[in-house]
């Protein structure tokens, strides 16, 4: 386990920074380093974090103060359940050493630092960004769920999964898609696995495919359950179902499918279908993107998906040269993805799948320039798709 307190601070660079930021009280400024990092015993009772290896020593007043500062600065890296227990013990040590008021001052300063830090973050660092009218003619912006580290990204993913019904009520499919894509992109950039939340996010992000006949069926079912659907609208929806049933190729273009999902989402809002979702009438993303990219990767064993939504066969990466990679991404990446003098497809796939979106876009263009066609793509002017055998395998995921 990574040490987050003063005992894990190499060369005490963070300590020197915190002294300036928080204007340490005299008893902490004049304390010897050994006083704050070397307790006389390793007994768990003198630490705020009693898990091994013990962290945040509080064996004297100076150590307790310094440990509290490190906790304030590093708490976002600690699991929330454990975090509360550590804070509770730190508060008890602060009371024991009679430094409650000094700690409260530090907590207030930390809150102001956090507000300034969050205020300076770009919108891309938040899972949810909404600009609207406050009702008095003023434009306001709401930003929620910053994603600066692994725990915050996982918290954003968990929020989206837990409150998806409420999110559906307030925001249309395309807005939900934007939020889900931001969380998935940030997780990919940081190499984070989102476990059970990933499937929900992939569908909400429009990263998948479905059987057109199933899609047509659930569109028709909406005519039956919609509240007071008049004849012209029912007729238009029936024509849409027929079009979907007879245009299977559109499901190879998730951008077109996303527009279809938005159309059905708007119908659901207008005709009160949101509270009637069921197996027969699922939410748009649960049918139109039923077979996710992750599931498709299981079908196409050597598939590599980048953060742009491009799915390629990694075996095609052997067509790339080391100089291609070096020219675009530098020596470090070129060395990482080569074996001997040649590009190693498996190594390149592992790196390419985690590239941040701008770099992934460069990588997509590199594939195109070298005549490597993707299996499927997030948006495309040309028709791209799985071959017949692969389509049969993906269909088996849905049926």
Structure description:
The chain is mainly α and 399 residues long. The chain folds into four domains: 6-119, no CATH class; 123-202, no CATH class; 208-290; 293-398, no CATH class. It is built from 20 helices and ten strands. It has helices spanning 13-22, 26-29, 33-37, 61-74, 80-96, 100-120, 150-162, 164-170, 173-190, 197-204, 212-225, 231-246, 254-270, 284-288, 293-299, 322-329, 331-336, 345-352, 357-369, 388-398; strands at 47-49, 55-57, 126-133, 139-146, 208-209, 291-292, 303-305, 311-313, 338-339, 342-343. A hairpin with a 5-residue loop joins β7 (303-305) and β8. α4 runs antiparallel to α5 (80-96), α7 runs antiparallel to α9 and α9 crosses α10. The protein is globular. 33% of the residues are buried. The model is unreliable at 379-399 (pLDDT under 50).
Task: Outline the secondary-structure elements.
Layout: H1 13-22, H2 26-29, H3 33-37, E1 47-49, E2 55-57, H4 61-74, H5 80-96, H6 100-120, E3 126-133, E4 139-146, H7 150-162, H8 164-170, H9 173-190, H10 197-204, E5 208-209, H11 212-225, H12 231-246, H13 254-270, H14 284-288, E6 291-292, H15 293-299, E7 303-305, E8 311-313, H16 322-329, H17 331-336, E9 338-339, E10 342-343, H18 345-352, H19 357-369, H20 388-398
Antiparallel strand pairs: 1-2, 3-4, 5-6, 7-8, 9-10
Helix pairs in contact: 4-5, 4-6, 7-9, 7-10, 9-10, 11-12
Number of strands: 10
- Mind describing the biggest β-sheet? 2 strands, antiparallel
Helix content: 55-70%
Give the number of domains.
4
What is the count of helical runs?
A: 20
Any idea what the radius of gyration is? 27 Å
User: Helix- and strand-based class?
Assistant: mainly alpha
Strand percentage lies at 5-15%
List the secondary-structure elements in sequence, H or E: HHHEEHHHEEHHHHEHHHHEHEEHHEEHHH
Lateral strand order in the biggest sheet: 1-2
List unreliable stretches of 5+ residues. 379-399
Name the overall outline. globular
Name the average pLDDT: 84
The termini sit apart by: 44 Å
